Amino acid sequence: MTEATRSSGAATRRALVVGGGVAGLVVARDLASAGVDVVLVEASDRLGGEVGRHVVGGLPLDAGAESFATRGGTVRAYLDELGLGDDVVLPDPRGAWVQHGSGQAFPLPRTGLLGIPGDLAADDVVAVVGAAGTAEAARLDAAPGDVGADETSVGGLVRVRMGDAVLDRLVTPIIGGVHSVHPDALSVDRVAPGLRAALRREGSLAAAVLSVRALAPAGSAVAGLRGGMASLAEALVAELDRLGVEVRLGAHVAALDGRSVTLNGDAAAAGQGAAATSSTSGAPERLEADVVVLAVGDGAGRVLTGRAAHAAGLITLATLVLRDPRLDAAPRGTGVLVAPGADGVRAKALTHATAKWPWLAERAAGRHVLRLSYDSPAVTGATTDDELRSTALADASVLLGLTLDPATVEDAARVEWSAPLPQEAAGASSSLPDGVVRVGGAVAGRGLAAVIAHARRVAAELVAR
C-alpha cells in the first residue's frame, strides 16, 4: 500500500501491540501498512525477541534463531517482501551428527524427517539405531496404515509405528535440539503436516516420510540469512520506523482491562529506531485502543491475569569464538545433537556455526564459532559466566572428539531465553476479552513460519473488520 493510499483511508482505528518479538513486529507492520494507528510496547530495551544479535569476539552473531524452515515457502516469501531475498543462504550440506549415551557419535541419516527414518534398512539408520532397534521398527511399521495414525504427538506416533529405539536415538535428539521440547509435547500436524494422512495412504511410516519429503521443494530443509537471522528483526524495525509506528521500549504492562492497558511508570529504556520512545514521568500511563494484540507469547498469562500461568524454565545459549586449525575439517559436520543420557555432556546440542554457514566462516577469518544450548537447571541460571564458558568448552571437546585448549578461546557469551511451554489447545484464545487477540509462538506454534503466517492472518482479519 502506498503512502498516498494510506493517507486517503480513514485511519481512525488504533491498535496497541504488546510485545516486540517477531510476531509483534509483523502484526504491527501489517496493521500500519493498512492505515491503522499502531502503538507497540515492549518491556525490554530492544526489539526482535528471540531473533536478535550480539557481538562475540568482534563478530556480530545471532543471539537466538539462526535459521528458518523452508517448508511451505512462508518465510522466504516474507523475506522477499522485505527486500532480503538475495541474502537467503543454504547451510553447508555436510549435515549434523548425533551423540549417544555410550559416547558414540554418528552422522544423522539422510532420508529422515524430524529424525523419523524413511529407509529403516539404510546403513546410516542401522548405525545409529542398531540392528535390533531397526528390526523392531520394521516389525512395528509393517502394521496396517491406520495403526497409530490417530496419534497427535510426534512421540506417540513414532513410539507406536517404530518403537522406543528410533524415538530415543534419533527423533528425541533432533526434536529437542530444534524445538526444545520432547517429541511427546510436539504436534505432528504442526511440524509435519500431511504425515498422518500419508501414513494411512502409504501403509507405513517410513513410506509416509519418503512421500512427504518427495512433495517438499528440492534443497535444504532450513535456510538462513547472510549476516544472520537478526537482519529480519532489523528490517522489521526499519519498516515500523518508516510507517510511523510509535514504539515504547522499557514499557511494562501493569494491567489489562478490556482494550485499555496500564503501563508502569518506571519505563526508562532508550529508543531503538527513530520512532522509539520511553516513559519517564514516573506515573502509570493508561493507553486506550480499539484492539489490543498480545504478542507476548507465554507471558500472556501475566498480562491477562496479573500473574504467570506457568513457570517456564530457561534455555541457555553459550557461544565460543576460538582459533583451532583442527576445526577447519568440521569433524562433526555442522553440529551435534545430543541424545538423552549422553555421558559426560550437559549440552543438548552444539552448532558449529562457521562450518554450517560459509558466509560466517569467511567473516571469522580463520576463527571458529561454536554455539551450545542447555536446558538443565544445573547449568541454566546455576553457573557463573566463567563456569558456563568452562562447561561449554568441555562439552564441545567431547562432542567434537577433540580436546580444546582454553587458551584458544578468544571470547565467549551467554544468552538466556524462556523455555517453550506445551502448545496451547486450539481455541484457547476464545476466553480473551472483547477486542483482545493473541499472536506468537504460544498460539501459532514454534518456528518463524508458523509465527509469521499466524500474525499476518490475524492482522488481515483485524483490518477486514
Care to give the gist of this entry?
The protein has 16 helices and 21 strands. With 465 residues, it is an alpha/beta fold.
Terminal CA distance reads 18 Å
Mean pLDDT across the residues is 87
What's the tally of helices? 16
- Binned, the helix content reads 25-40%
Strand % is: 15-25%
The poorly predicted ranges are 1-11, 267-272, 424-429
Q: Mind telling me the C-alpha Rg?
A: 23 Å
Structural class: alpha/beta
- The number of distinct β-strands equals 21
Would you identify the CATH H-level superfamily of the largest domain? Answer: FAD/NAD(P)-binding domain
Find the CATH topology of the largest domain: FAD/NAD(P)-binding domain
The CATH first-level class of the largest domain comes to Alpha Beta
Main sheet summary:
7 strands, mixed
Shape: globular
Write out the strand line-up for the largest beta sheet, numbering strands in chain order.
8-7-17-18-19-16-20
- Indicate how many domains the architecture comprises: 3
Question: Per CATH, which architecture of the largest domain?
Answer: 3-Layer(bba) Sandwich
Give a structural overview.
The chain is built from 16 helices and 21 strands. A hairpin with a 5-residue loop joins β7 and β8 (105-107). Mean pLDDT is 87; it is low at 1-11, 267-272 and 424-429. The two termini are 18 Å apart. It is of the alpha/beta class and 465 residues long. The protein has a 7-stranded mixed sheet with strand order 8-7-17-18-19-16-20, sandwiched between helices. The longest helix is centred in the middle third of the chain and has 26 residues, at 154-179. The chain has helices at residues 3-8, 22-33, 74-81, 123-129, 131-141, 154-179, 188-191, 195-202, 205-215, 230-243, 300-305, 353-356, 358-364, 385-400, 441-444, 448-464, and strands spanning 14-18, 37-42, 53-56, 59-62, 68-69, 88-89, 97-99, 105-107, 222-225, 246-249, 253-257, 260-263, 276-277, 285-288, 291-294, 314-322, 335-338, 349-352, 368-374, 409-418, 436-438. 35% of the residues lie in helices and 20% in strands. It folds into 3 domains: 3-49 and 229-311 and 421-464, FAD/NAD(P)-binding domain (3-Layer(bba) Sandwich), CATH 3.50.50.60; 53-92 and 313-418, Polyamine Oxidase, Chain A, domain 2, CATH 3.90.660; 111-216, protoporphyrinogen ix oxidase, domain 3.
